[in-house]
Amino acid sequence: MPTDPLPTYRFAPSPNGYLHLGHALSAILNHDLAASNNGRFLVRIDDIDQTRARPAFEDAIFEDLDWLGLQWAPDIRRQSEHTDDYRAALARLDALGLVRRSVATRREIAEAAAAAEKAGTPWRRDPDGAWIAPPDEAFLTTDAIATRIATDAPATLRLKTRKAIAHLAIDLAFVEEDAGPAGETGLIEADPTLWGDVVLARSDAAASYHLSVVVDDAAQGITHVVRGRDLFYATAIHRLLQALLDLPAPRYRHHRLITDETGRKLSKSSQDTSLRELRDQGATPADIRRKIGIG
Ligand code: GLU
User: Fold this and answer.
1) Which residues make Cβ contacts (< 8 Å) with residue 58, sequence separation at least 6?
2) How far, in Å, is the centroid of ligand 1 from the Cα of 235?
3) Domains in the chain, CATH or no CATH each
4) Rounded CA gap, 21 and 28, in Å?
5) pLDDT tens-digit readout, 113-171
6) Which protein residues are within 6 Å of ligand 1, measured from CB?
């Protein structure tokens, strides 16, 4: 009989700012769930975006987690050290005919969307509120597209999402052990079309967030993904990529978000709620647990 895989959890911050109370909630939940399930707690450094990652922030992550009293497994994965893995995944998707090269810039898509909306034609947004990239770039002239391709202008590689769904011809679902923003829970049908043709790689990044986390979670044997509710809808794309790449599906738990007094989600730039600022003001790890409601 096959044995069940070891329950494996991860906390995967990006080293582009100091950890705040929201990160503390994610890290502590992952740590405590791993402990209560006799599993492993891994820390991953999600530094695929090298334009924003800073070594000082990475050092601060480990310092803060240590201060919180968490213990993690010694094997640390850094995305920047695994670009070959992402390239291989990309090549596999490309071999299936599911990758397209897109030369329109984000700005051009935004301009086209704004112009269309002004003319009364609605343009779809993704769950993060960004304009969906259209399947063709008809708002650019064919000459402009040809010139950019001929001159090797920076391009974005995108997943042909609808074609990918048709290629699989199976229903995609995932298990949600907590809840999504609208209370979605239990077995959730994944709808990747919400995202349009998502970015897989850019000229300045070997892999997008979506592609890298899917490859990493599989490489690390993650069985349970515990992360903020803001990433709930992204799971639809993650399930699609897992299915296309023959990777196992972890179980998901999207936890509540910690907000500031005005009800806004915390961001790395809100220094007042960074763990080190709170520590400097005299807070103890027990105070942090109390503040985030897990005492
Ligand atoms: N690195 C991502 C972040 O800091 C989290 C990745 C994930 O949990 O899927 O938001």
Assistant:
1) 15, 45, 47
2) 11
3) 1-81+269-295 (3.40.50.620), 82-258 (3.40.50.620)
4) 10
5) 999 999 999 999 999 999 999 877 777 777 777 787 777 777 899 999 999 999 998 88
6) 12-14, 46, 213, 227, 231
